[in-house]
Amino acid sequence: MLVFDELVMALKNTGVPFAVDEWETRPNTDHGVVALDGTGAILSGDNCHAECAYTGTVDLFLHALNAAKVAAVEAALTSVCEGAWYLNSRQYEAGTHLTHYEWVFELEAI
Predict the structure, then answer these.
(1) pLDDT at 98 over 60
(2) Cβ atoms of 29 and 84 closer than 8 Å
(3) Alpha-carbon gap, residue 109 to 35, rounded angstroms
(4) Are the beta carbons of 32 and 18 closer than 8 angstroms?
(5) Can you tell me whether residue 91 is helix, strand or coil?
(6) CA–CA gap between residue 60 and residue 89 (Å, rounded)
(7) Domain limits of the chain?
(8) Residue 35 Cα distances to 7, 47, 107, angstroms
(9) Of 18, 11, 101, which Cα lies nearest the Cα of 63?
C-alpha cells in the first residue's frame, strides 16, 4: 500500500493533523481524516485482475474558512493521485461548529 502511505505523508505535511481511518477522540481543533473505502475500478484480463484501483476519502474539519489549508490538501491529492480526485461536499456542522470538506480519491494499486 505504498501509494496510500505517500498520500498520508503528503497530507500530514499540510500542517493539519491527520489521522488514518478515524480519531479515537475527535480533536476540538482543525483536523483531518484519510481512509481507504475499498476497491474501485478493476480491469480484468485473461481471467484475472490485470489492474486495480482503490477508492477512499479525505475529510477536513475547520473551525474557520481557511483557503490555504483547503489548497494544501488539494495540492497533496494532486501530487499523489494525479488528478484522480474531486471535492464531494462542503457542509457546516452545527453541532460542532466545524466546516466539513470531503474529497473522494482513487489510487492505483501497486
Answers:
(1) yes
(2) no
(3) 15
(4) yes
(5) strand
(6) 11
(7) 2-108
(8) 10, 30, 12
(9) 101
Amino acid making up residue 8: V
- Give the list of residues 6+ apart from residue 48 with CB closer than 8 angstroms, or none: none
pTM comes to 0.83
Report phi then psi at 72, rounded to 5: -65, -40
Separation of alpha carbons 94 and 16, rounded Å:
21
Fold of 2-108: STM4215-like (3.30.2000)
Q: Grid coordinates standing for 54?
A: 482503490
The three three-digit cell numbers of residue 53, written as one number: 484501483
Q: What is the 3-state secondary structure (H, E, C) of 2-66?
A: HHHHHHHHHHHCCCCCEEECCCCCCCCCCEEEEEEEEEEEEEEECCEEEEEEEEEEEEEEECCCC
Dist. CA 85–CA 104, nearest whole Å: 5
Cα 42 to Cα 3, 47, 57, distances in angstroms: 17, 12, 18
Element holding 73 (H helix, E strand): helix 67-81
Task: Give 37-62 pLDDT, tens digit per residue.
Answer: 766 666 566 666 556 778 899 999 99
